[in-house]
Amino acid sequence: MADPETKDKPAPKPPEPDPIVTEHTVELAGKVFAYTATTGRLELKNAKEETEARVFFVAYQKKERRPGERRPLMFSFNGGPGSASVWLHFGALGPYRVKMLDDGAMPAPPYELEFNPESWLADTDLVFIDPVGTGYSRAETEELGPKFWGVKGDIESIAEFVRLFLTKFERWESPLFLVGESYGTTRAAGLSGYLVEKGIAFNGILLVSSILNFLTARFVKGNDLPYVLFLPTYAATAWYHGKLAPKYQADLEATLREVEAWATGDYLLALQKGDRLEPAARKRVIDRLAAYTGLSREYLDNCDLRVEIMAFCKELLRSEKRTVGRLDTRFKGIDGKHTGERFDHDPSMTAIRPPYTAMANHYYRTVLGYKTDVPYYILGEGIEKPWDWGSAGEGHPDTSEALRTAFAKNPYMKVFVASGFYDLATPYFATRHTLAHLGLDPTQRDRVTTADYRAGHMMYIDVGELKRLRDDVAAFVKSALGSG
Length: 484
Hints:
By secondary structure, this protein is of the alpha/beta class.
């Protein structure tokens, strides 16, 4: 007779099989580089040793190390929240990348992978992590999913993955790095403060297209900060599409310096006055906004001097019946109707999603030998509940304090911040604002390195900026290791 206490309980899932290890070679910096690729899932368990989730990863490690060599190890993830690690993996860091057009636009299908001469594997071993609900990572039961789908649970689960990886693959002696993109920078900042309390300190944190304080990007009534911080990216976008007067089209960076100064000066003061702004001063602001954004004075007056991101993406090229992208404003889209206030889709996301989806599925199965018929969740499909922002429900998510704490507790940690001029998801000037308000001691500021690129959110999809990013990162890693 069946035990009534176990009758309705699902059968336990079998233990996770051992990771698959394959051997490969690529040519990096003119030399043959031999490495192993380890592919599998690590089990996250609770205090009772019950499996709660299985986290998919791909780890690239140098095949042969010199005696005593402490090769750096870099953990990598993307954002969303709800994004798999494919963008950094197959766009910039890994030994192979998705073949796109040179500026990052979508090629004709069928899609291809190509050797990545700018892979970061030349300088550091790499571990790509898919958080629970992304890629092939899954919670053990449907009820357990929400535990991982929030700021706190996400940081805790990735921290546990890092600990497990260091233990299982005996990498506790390695110099450690984190690289996150977009919401992954929110995660990386939070991890840097959380893990230092667990005895895991990083040599370097790399933030690609960063957002730590969401106050800088929330267009809500009473918060004028985003209008100020997004303005330079509006100007860069208008410059790229040839919508500025000749004197502003001559030199992008000179134009941006002027816009930045005005945005944090006269424009900020004007917005703070609200309805008390005098008519003559209002006209001067409208004239300057029109000059910097390429938008009409009438439109700027009607939106009360405040241009929201989606409105800008729709309005800038409305006369051409085109929209511009959010992730990368260089890209143009075509909507079904040209009268709306928002675009139908983000043309910059539309350009990259099909190639990256196809090539990730192909690569894991046929190159790395990880065979499964379950779907690989690229972006958002596996997050079945609203993201839990925790205490941010009372304000705005902010992990910048965790990063400052890590700076204080780890005097050797350095930070590299990469931003794209044409990124409206995480604008470069908003990132600068956050960095300037971390509350760092003057002696800590030289441990932060910033770099700007003439591309969008995923600046590395542009082949020219891919090399620049790779060179900048290589120099940063050497510096963080005390050898550069």
